[in-house]
Design goal:
The complex is a heterotrimer of chains A (266), B (618) and C (339). With 266 residues, chain A is an alpha/beta fold. Chain A has a single domain, classed as 3-Layer(aba) Sandwich (Rossmann fold). Chain A has helices at residues 41-56, 70-80, 101-113, 139-146, 204-219, 253-265, and strands spanning 3-7, 10-12, 20-23, 26-29, 37-39, 61-68, 87-92, 123-128, 152-161, 167-172, 178-183, 188-192, 222-223, 232-237, 246-248. In chain A, the strands form 3 sheets. A 9-stranded mixed beta sheet of chain A has the order 11-10-9-12-8-1-6-7-13, sandwiched between helices. Chain A has a two-stranded antiparallel ribbon with strand order 2-5. In chain A, strands 3-4 form a two-stranded antiparallel sheet. In chain A, helix 2 runs antiparallel to helix 5 (204-219). Chain B has 618 residues and is of the alpha+beta class. Helices cover 29% and strands 21% of the residues of chain B. In chain B, strand 1 (6-14), helix 1 (18-31) and strand 2 form a beta-alpha-beta unit. Chain B is globular. Chain B starts with 5 loop residues before the first strand and ends in a 12-residue tail after the last strand. The chains are: A alpha/beta (266), B alpha+beta (618), C alpha/beta (339). Strand 15 of chain A pairs parallel with strand 15 of chain C, so a sheet runs across the interface. Bound molecules: flavin-adenine dinucleotide (2 copies) and iron/sulfur cluster (2 copies). Residues 14-20, 55-58, 64-70, 157, 181-182, 226-229, 231-233, 255, 257, 299, 341, 343, 363-364, 369, 375-378, 380, 608 of chain B line the site of one flavin-adenine dinucleotide. Chain B: It catalyses: a ubiquinone + reduced [electron-transfer flavoprotein] = a ubiquinol + oxidized [electron-transfer flavoprotein] + H(+).
């Protein structure tokens, strides 16, 4: 039996045009609140894996812990809640990537500490191995340490639970290879890559069931204190989008081919 | 998961647009107290307030496409405390202009009198007393009262919907589920008893595939249909019941728009509202609204009565933006958002049965949109409010949602309201456009100024009949041989015809600048952020493949707002790519051939589908 | 004054990985810029060869023992923590390989320090360390600094030249870390390498070759030449050891499930609804360069394209070089030249 806590933030839908702006509360995105958001993609995989595992191991339970602005979370939850059964825990605070991972981990730790009935010995801490916003891949480890978890895995694509409750984990390492390890059991922290499960269909009944807890969770969400000054940003810039394209026209094929060969070798 | 789930609720709603916003806002106030307790009880979950579930097709409730400029009478009445500053991109109207645009290229198809007028303006423009001719445009000296929106608001429909949706959900009175297309109404013994959601985990053809999950049946005491201008649920009911005698839905337009970050030098004041006529074709109207934050919402409407078989909104939009009157201040701006959507312009003439046993219709799909005043949002909202009031009344009295009871409460309210009064005035205002642009404008003015007493009568026709052959349309401008050559060349390359044809008649090439002038594909991504989750069937299909094979116009391809329908080099049946579709619904009426089953319809079938735009600013 | 500690695991053969040597260069650059002390922290079964290789950089602290040979969070974190403490480090720099990326954030937490991961540049500016890293999937870049110490930083591969100073006699301090039972709850079982059979998707290749729909379209002579297209593409991939990508139009062609070019699958699709591969170079052929495709090129540094159409998307600032030419002819010749 596992108590699975999935940490997942929200990020702008991947196709949105993003532009950094400095506001009174530090760096953020232009029109941040207007951008449609989604649950962080790798964290979403963690959530699907958690739901799948909870179903396979009777008595298990899934919490989704998210730090983000309440109003935005409410919106995102209308889609996420249809995907898998979970109980939502909200820390009402900024969701942006410019917040320090240590600060985020502290906010999440506070939120998790408030979960009634959470059994630390059965705890599996799940999350994405990186966020699509901060892209740092450090929040989960820091949080794990705060929760006293010293068996940690990152870039996980597969988790197999043994009959004795042991965990076999497949982690991505260099060169497209995998490291396979076993851990004697919970507690453990797993930062998921894509996992093995496809995105579940939208199940309206799952959504309805989740919603009974989502709305109250949003209502009683506590504001999370994060220190926006933890990082001293000197500048945030967009890379130049446009390249100076050199157009090579009316040139013999041999010359072009040779140029490509030279470029390949350079 | 292969069994079809079924669920009972009190009220099930289809589509979340302004009509549903008005309905749920009103209903919420009537069924839950401020502390969240129930005013009356649900029949399915005793102890709780009536259970209200709304399913929205799109991936978010904020991706609606509209203008919007609105008098906002109905919206303000039901939200007296509304502060425009609380909604991003919302502002009071400060200035209104109607502008006639002269064709700077001489490429549009203009009637002789119009050509003469253009020539006179170009020659003498500035010299006419009182005529404000500048930048190849004339600002009309006055705005007819029926068009005027003074005192109203201009805003982004997406942001407005999002705000309304969040406010409704926060009351706990309703759940609004995005990414949930409703496939069809469930009709039993002539009674609507709920809806069926679309199947998931199916292939293009709708056959079960990996992770098959049949769409759930949601049974309800009342089904509220607010699925907009091309909603498949509303149309299914119409197919089952037919339209009331003498009514038909033959007038449509597709509105295509951009939201633009204006360049620094642009002097347009926030709250400025500009409407244009005359260009890029006389039949195409344009709009430009200046929103807070140095942002403009702008676009054009390409109507079903524009008899051009290669009616491409995208290319025309690019020419329209580049008209000197607009380009002067747009040049250097950047696209933030792109979108397109159909308007059901039949209004009162196309009004379906508003209620029946177990269901009620609200919004544009129920004929609320007023073509004379150019207003749809407030009318849609108000119809929702009226149904909301009616439903609360029936719930309070414990009466069932029968046709008769809904007629007495909802329809009666609607008939007694300004929505109906103005719809009646508007009913025949656009008829004359069937005869041409000038009769159309005169007819509209006549009807508007006499409050519907007079009109310029003309016969309407089913949409497909308005589409001539390409050879006919370009008669005298491009030879039949040339058209044949262009067609062969484009088909081999899998391209649409409009670019080659428009180039041929003198439309200048579009010089991409990577900011405002970008390719159509790029606009889908940079502006529309179009995407579609896998596992749904194609929602656009062609009823009779042989009809397509024999079709020389292929207007569906030319008009497609997402380049989702494309030329099939190997077969005459166009290809459809649901990952590019923006769900504008234009294909539904941009087809030159009738359906074999119903001569009012075309050969295109447009069903409920998931995905589409991911921009919340339109 | 700052004390900079460069940390790295030592491989079974006693060497440091290239990524670590690159991070060492970064650490050295920073130390020189700040005038700070540089120390080296190594952990592994046997660190002696590695210690000798980097001896010139500064004093070496080492945690050794069998338990530290494997890439395991608990032992790695314990070693790194002990090294940081032993060296009294204020700034800890390491490579962002999978092993250190997994462990170092937790170490930062134990030290009550902070971490910035996947840094692409690190420099001294006005006497302060300044790091550069991407946000929002590399769509924007920030330069930042921090007051908090210890400050851990992981450096991305390919940003610095690998350190290759002369080896020497290291001044080695052994740091002992008792291995507790809690540290060995996890056992490493195996490393599974990807199968070496004919793969056309090669994440480690330097070069991405993108095939677009033009390869299967009717050419100047009015006919399509699909078999030849297939040969040219596969021929190039084999010779240049490139990875294969495709446009959506090309993989979509040929109907349900099967593609006109049999070796192409949806996994090859690059772009908005496809993959976003990372390669140094990218060559697009017969592909129009529409934005939904080109967004998938975000991580391709050098971009060239071959297209018949001088006005195709690549010309609009999306490629560095556009060759307006017939890709059949060009690739035929390129393959010949590659021999
Ligand atoms: C470009 C443009 C500019 C416009 N400008 C103005 C203007 O300036 N002022 C003005 O007043 N009006 C304007 N309109 C018209 C106005 O937007 C519409 O009249 C109004 O949005 C209609 O509201 P509605 O709620 O009836 O329908 P909609 O807004 O169309 O909402 C219907 C909803 O139902 C959803 N839906 C459809 N099918 C299904 C299904 N099967 N399952 C679930 N959900 C479904 C749709 O996704 C949609 O969200 C404009 C329209 C366009 C396109
Ligand atoms: C929502 C959405 C998502 C999308 N996602 C993706 C995606 O993930 N990936 C993707 O690739 N696309 C995607 N697209 C589609 C994308 O916009 C383009 O349609 C697609 O990339 C075009 O593929 P292409 O350039 O190969 O084909 P085409 O546009 O058909 O171009 C073929 C090109 O080949 C050239 N050509 C022909 N013969 C030769 C020759 N002998 N030598 C040299 N050149 C030749 C032609 O000049 C032409 O430029 C998406 C579109 C949308 C709207
Ligand atoms: S749907 Fe078929 S019949 Fe209708 S316009 Fe397109 S090709 Fe022609
Ligand atoms: S296929 Fe989609 S985008 Fe194209 S016209 Fe139809 S609804 Fe609009």
């Amino acid at each position: 039996m596992f108590h699975i806590v999935v940490c997942g933030g929200i990020v702008p839908d991947p196709l949105q045009t993003l532009e950094p702006v400095k506001g009174p509360a530090g760096w953020g995105l232009k029109n941040e609140l207007m951008l449609p958001s989604i649950l962080d993609p790798w964290a979403s995989h963690a959530l699907y894996e958690a739901a799948h595992l909870a179903k396979a191991v009777p008595g298990s339970k899934v919490w989704l812990v998210s730090l983000g602005p309440k109003a935005k979370l409410q919106q995102v939850m209308m889609t996420v809640a249809q995907k898998a059964p979970f109980e939502l825990v909200v820390a009402d605070g900024p969701a942006g990537g410019f917040v320090d991972s240590f600060e985020v981990a502290e906010a999440l730790f506070a939120a998790i500490s408030g979960i009634a009935g959470l059994d630390a010995s059965k705890l599996l801490l799940f999350g994405g191995w990186q966020s699509a916003s901060r892209g740092s891949g450090s929040t989960l480890q820091i949080l794990g340490e705060k929760l006293g978890i010293t068996d940690q895995f990152q870039g996980v694509d597969k988790l197999t639970v043994g009959a004795d409750g042991s965990l076999e984990v497949m982690e991505r390492i260099e060169g497209g290879a995998y490291q396979i390890s076993t851990c004697t059991g919970a507690p453990a922290a797993l930062g998921w890559a894509t996992g093995e499960l496809p995105e579940p269909p939208n199940n309206p009944q799952v959504g309805m069931a989740n919603m009974r807890l989502v709305m109250p969770a949003l209502q009683k969400a506590k504001p999370a204190a994060v220190n926006a000054a933890a990082i001293d940003y000197q500048s945030v810039t967009l890379p130049a989008q446009k390249r100076e394209t050199r157009v090579v026209k009316d040139t013999p094929v041999d010359v072009i081919a040779q140029e490509i060969i030279d470029w390949l070798a350079s | 998961m292969n069994e079809r789930q079924s669920m009972e609720t009190d009220i099930v709603c289809v589509g979340f647009g302004p009509a549903m916003g008005g309905f749920l806002t009103t209903l919420a106030k009537g069924i839950v107290n401020e502390d969240g307790s129930a005013v009356m009880e649900s029949t399915v979950v005793p102890g709780l307030p009536p259970q209200v579930i709304c399913y929205e097709r799109a991936d978010d409730i904020g991706v609606g496409v509209s203008g919007v400029v609105s008098k906002a009478r109905g919206i303000r009445e039901s939200l007296p405390e509304l502060d425009p500053a609380c909604i991003p991109l919302c502002t009071p109207i400060t200035e209104e202009k109607v502008v006639y645009l002269v064709d700077p290229h001489g490429a549009s198809r203009r009637s002789l009198p119009l050509k003469a007028a253009d020539a006179a303006l170009k020659l003498l423009g500035g010299k006419f007393p009182g005529c404000r001719y500048k930048d190849m445009a004339v600002e009309l000296p006055y705005i007819p009262p029926f068009l005027e929106k003074h005192g109203g608001l201009t805003f982004s429909l997406g942001q407005f919907n999002q705000w309304v949706g969040n406010t409704v959900m926060a009351t706990g009175a309703a759940q609004i589920w995005p990414a949930s297309p409703v496939a069809a109404p469930i009709i039993e013994h002539r009674k609507v008893v709920g809806v069926r959601l679309a199947d998931q985990g199916v292939d293009k053809a709708g056959k079960p595939d990996a992770a098959y999950m049949p769409g759930m049946d949601v049974r309800a005491r009342l089904t509220v249909v607010g699925d907009g201008p091309v909603g498949p649920v509303g149309r299914a009911i119409d197919e089952a019941r037919g339209l009331p005698m003498g009514h038909h839905q033959r007038d449509y337009a597709v509105g295509m728009k951009f939201v633009v970050d204006l360049p620094g030098n642009c002097p347009w004041k926030v709250g400025t509202v500009i409407h244009t006529i005359g260009y890029p074709e006389p039949e195409i109207f344009g709009f430009l609204y200046v929103l807070p934050g140095h942002v403009a919402s702008l676009g054009i409407f390409v109507p079903s009565w524009f008899d051009n078989p290669v009616r491409t909104a995208y290319r025309y939009l690019q020419h329209w933006m580049q008209h000197p009157y607009l380009w002067k201040y747009l040049k250097g701006g950047t696209i933030r958002s792109f979108g397109a959507k159909t308007l059901q312009e039949s209004g009162k003439n196309g009004e379906p049965y508003l209620v029946g046993d177990g269901y009620a219709r609200i919004g544009e799909g129920s004929g609320t949109t007023n073509v004379l005043t150019g207003s749809g949002v407030d009318e849609a909202w108000t119809s929702g409010v009226q149904l909301g009031q009616a439903v609360v009344e029936l719930l309070e009295k414990g009466l069932p949602f029968t046709s008769e009871n809904l007629e007495k409460t909802y329809v009666a309210r609607r008939r007694a309201s300004w929505v109906e009064a103005e719809a009646k005035i508007a009913a025949r205002s656009r008829e004359a456009f069937a005869s041409g642009f000038i009769p159309g404008i005169i007819g509209m003015a006549l009807t508007g100024l006499t409050k519907g007493a007079l009109c310029w009568p003309a016969d309407s026709e089913p949409v497909h009949k308005r589409i001539p052959s390409i050879e006919e349309y370009y008669h005298g401008r491009i030879s039949c041989e040339e058209i044949t050559r262009i067609r062969q060349e484009a088909t081999a390359k899998g391209l649409a015809l409009h670019d080659a044809l428009m180039d041929k008649v003198g439309w200048p090439e579009i010089e991409y600048d990577g900011k405002l002038l970008i390719s159509h594909q790029d606009a889908l991504l940079l502006g529309g952020k179009v995407q579609a989750a896998p596992g749904y069937a194609d929602h656009v299909t062609f009823e009779c493949p042989d009809t397509c094979r024999a079709c020389a116009e292929k207007t569906c391809i030319e008009a497609c707002s997402g380049q989702a329908i494309t030329t099939n080099p190997d077969d005459g049946v166009p290809l459809f790519d649901r990952e590019k579709c923006v769900h504008c619904g234009a294909c539904l009426w941009n087809c030159s051939k009738p359906s074999k089953a119903d001569p009012e319809r075309t050969n295109v079938r447009f069903a409920a589908g998931a995905g589409g735009l991911h921009s919340a600013e339109n | 004054m700052e004390t900079i500690l460069f940390c790295a695991p030592v491989a079974a053969d006693g060497t440091l990985a290239k990524a670590s040597l690159e991070a060492l260069s970064a650490a050295k650059t920073l130390a020189e810029g700040l005038g700070a002390t540089l120390a080296v922290g190594l952990f592994g079964a046997d660190v002696a060869p590695a210690a000798a290789a980097v001896a010139a950089c500064g004093p070496v602290f080492a945690v050794t023992g069998e338990a530290f040979a494997v890439a395991r969070y608990a032992t790695d974190a314990a070693a790194l923590e002990a090294l940081a403490k032993a060296a009294s480090a204020t700034i800890i720099i390491a490579a962002d390989d999978s092993r250190v990326s997994r462990a170092l954030p937790g170490v930062a937490a134990r030290l009550n320090g902070r971490i910035d991961a996947h840094v692409v540049a690190i420099a001294a500016k006005d006497g302060k360390p300044l790091v550069t890293r991407g946000y929002y999937r590399q769509r924007m870049t920030a330069e930042l600094t921090r007051a908090a110490r210890p400050w851990c930083v992981t450096v991305s591969g390919g940003c610095y030249a690998a350190y290759d100073g002369a080896p020497g006699q290291a001044s080695l301090t052994d740091v002992s870390v008792p291995v507790t039972e809690a540290m060995t709850r996890t056992t490493i079982k195996a490393v599974v390498a990807p199968s070496a059979d004919e793969q056309t998707i090669r994440p480690d290749a330097k070069m991405l070759f993108v095939a677009g729909a033009g390869w299967t379209k009717k050419q100047g002579d009015g006919a399509a030449h699909v078999p030849e297209a297939g040969q040219l593409i596969l021929g190039f991939l084999g010779k240049a050891k490139a990875s294969l990508g495709s446009s959506k139009s090309l993989v979509d062609m040929g109907g349900e499930g099967e593609s006109v070019l049999p070796f192409l699958t949806h996994l090859h699709q690059v772009g908005q609804t496809g993959a976003t591969p990372r390669h140094q170079k990218g060559l697009a052929t017969c592909c129009h360069g529409e934005e939904p495709h080109v967004v998938g090129w975000r991580f391709i540094t050098e971009r060239r394209a071959v297209n018949l159409d001088a006005a195709c998307g690549w010309a609009q600032g999306k490629a560095d070089v556009l060759y307006v030419a017939d890709a059949f002819e060009v690739m035929r010749r390129v393959n010949e030249l590659l021999g």
